[in-house]
Amino acid sequence: MLNSNPYINPHARIQFRAILAATACIVLIPLSARSQNAESFAPPAQIAYAAAPSNRQLADPAIEKRVDALLKQMTLEEKLGQLVQYGDTGDSAIAPLANVVQAPGKNPETHVKIDPMQLAATGRLGSMLNVVGAEHTRAFQQAAVEKSRLHIPLLFGADILHGYRTVYPIPLGLAATFDPDMVAALSHISAQEASTAGVRWFYSPMVDISRDPRWGRTQEGAGEDAYLGAAMARAYIRGYQGEDLSRPDSIAASVKHFAAYGAAEAGREYNTTDMSLSRLQQDYLPPYKAAVQQGAATMMSAFNALNGVPATANSFLLQDVLRKQWGFDGFVVSDFTAVMELRNHGIAQDAATAAQKALLAGVEIDMMSHYYDTELPALIRSGKVPMSVVDEAVRRVLRVKFVLGLFEHPYPTEKEVTAAIPEHRATVRHGAEESLVLLQNHPMNGAALLPLTNSAHTIALIGPLSDDTQEMSGNWGAGGRNPDVVTVKDALEQRAKQNGGTLLYEKGTEITGSSEAGFQAAVDAARKADVVIMALGETTEMSGEAGSRSRLNLPGNQQQLLEAVAATGKPIVLLVFSGRPLVLSWAAQHVSAIMEAWFPGVEAGNAIANVLYGDVVPSGKLPMSFPRDVGQEPLYYNQFPTGRPPLNVDLSKMGEGDARFVSRYIDVPNDALFPFGYGLSYTDFAYSGVSVSRATAPLHEAEQQDAHKLVTATATVKNTGSRAATEVVQCYVRNLGASLEQPVRSLQGFMRVTLQPGESKQVSFDLGFPELSFYDNAGKAVIEPTHYTVWIGGSSLATEHADFDITR
Ligand code: BGC
């Protein structure tokens, strides 16, 4: 078992849920790598920060005074204590720390016994992970605050990514809302709830851009686009941290995983990433940067190597970019045993080198590796790690603790939240409704199948995700309680009662099943029904950490079940529950309606029923492209044009001559089945009059980094259908003629616009340096005298456009 974290390990999670339910408390260079030896290392304090501080509270001189005073009193052992983090192992037999020897490839957690309670009581523990629950956190906090010499409080961090008790959609689903205010509101809800359980630090948001859905952690992020990812990143920080980190219900965010973890080669978990500096800056770093600029208090270093340097020892990322360029003044925590894993990466042959490299690179807290506490004393004695570096690391940790007000309020002040809160359900339901993406809605007898009419229909509900409370909560929903979840079956039964209809339910098969024993009953139910709703998809464990897949199909024999039911000829609404884009090509040809539901949380059933019956008109848009075939991956809308773009070529046919020697596959079209930004409504929207405020703009104006309104692009969007609805209006930009090849288009603005039937609105997007510049291969944002095209529309396929030039 590599990770006993109950939020990760399925067995531990089940146990964890049981304990929660029962007791409400738980255990839960350009790429210029800075020289790793002490002689040439410039301690962070001496680095000339280019930017203003990222968080004004952390930079407050009054806080610094308190940090100074405390630091002066601390022994080396107490200082190092602030830099180590453990979970609650429950071990009372403490191994002599100095004797701990790690074999490369082995996770220390599996064979090291530590006693965190004793460490806390002796000032040798600074923070704990996934210890959640007022009673439990109190026990450890009391040890730290009441027994340790300097009474320094512990900081409790937890993997709370999409709700604590009132669980809401997974982050990929939240990204589909294109609604940062909604995401901020939901994040605030989880901060309020979890802070009552003693947690003041979330290992969230996960802002890794991912363009390859084989990577299971796709579900934890905002998908494939940097602009959307940055908007979502800011929203999470706003929601968690609020305006004031010292409020008892504010949570310090840990932005993860820094950096570019989502570009893991072939979508294989923990795999290498390797890319140009331009791509890194343009496509992967913006969400982390946005979070830092929004004031994120902490960051988590990633597991992966980036261009040969593991992120946890990568001083280019952690010093040059994070601290120097972005002025980050929080602290960095390693990912789980990532310091130890530097040995597996092969850049440290022993524990001491791993600890030295990580700390010197800028990782302040060692999560679970057991290396900082064991290795740093000797490294400091030998001068391989300067004391000033340790002091600076401790300062960064203490600043966050002071700013959070932990010294004044080490324990939760509000009554502990132990179940989903009724008052939070409405917001959570709205979030879930907005996250649903209607992918297909073919007409049946002249009218679109959805929305369903509230008449006395017979509906057959079929599929293993129809009535599964556990799966609705998603991969990081461990704090949720199954009884709090409303399933699709619950909600549709309620509807049937209200409208005098009949609901026939058949599970049909298991999510990963191979038995066809349930098929016949499912087919029989379908035959009796007017409409069939099928709830198919993945288990939550098929995505998330260590959830990479090589196939993107419906698991088990669900595809066969779908085909058997479709053979009845009945109209089918397919609900897809998944932590990633799946290949839905067969379904797209044989099924009337398809809705992507992700993992929606405790209000799953209600949100889905509201949209199916049209009480709510769907507005979600895809944050990731859904491929036609897994072999297209990584597939993303903002590709480069290449030297042989397949223009005017029918890619559905095998090509010859000019139709062959272009950038294409011979067996599948290039494009997505459902592209980024796409999602249907129950109404139609029309776009017209796309224009720009000027046809040319001078370069010297464009180069002003604070030029935000260089050009304004405008369009009229009209609701041409018969339902009031919300449209996510999107603005895409292409830059032609630049010194580096640029994407065919990239998102540079979006807004949600609500329109009554027949109503039109003018929408505008201001474009300036941030939207029009690109990164060169020295990592610098530049703007050149080039030609720009701007599209405004309802997906990445928007066609209405206008053009302008930046001129010398
Ligand atoms: C994951 C992180 C998580 C950490 C603590 C790691 O395995 O990669 O995302 O925050 O564990 O649970």
Protein described:
With 808 residues, the protein is α/β, with parallel strands linked by helices. Helix content is 29%, strand content 17%. It is built from 24 helices and 28 strands. α2 (61-73) packs across α15, α8 (226-241) runs parallel beside α10 and α13 (351-361) crosses α14 (372-381). The N and C termini lie far apart (61 Å). Mean pLDDT is 91; it is low at 1-49 and 92-106. Beta-D-glucopyranose is lined by residues 3, 5, 7-8, 129-130, 159, 203, 256, 335-336, 545.
Net shape: globular
Instruction: Give every kind of bound small molecule, once each.
Output: beta-D-glucopyranose
User: Uncertain spans, ≥5 residues at pLDDT below 50?
Assistant: 1-49, 92-106
- Please give the largest β-sheet: 8 strands, parallel
Estimate the helix proportion, in percent.
Answer: 25-40%
Tell me the distance between the termini: 61 Å
| Nearest-integer average pLDDT | 91
Helix/sheet category: alpha/beta
Strand order in the sheet with the most strands: 9-6-5-4-3-2-1-10
The total strand number stands at 28
Q: In percent, how much strand structure appears in the residues? A: 15-25%
> What gyration radius follows from the Cα positions, in whole Å?
27 Å
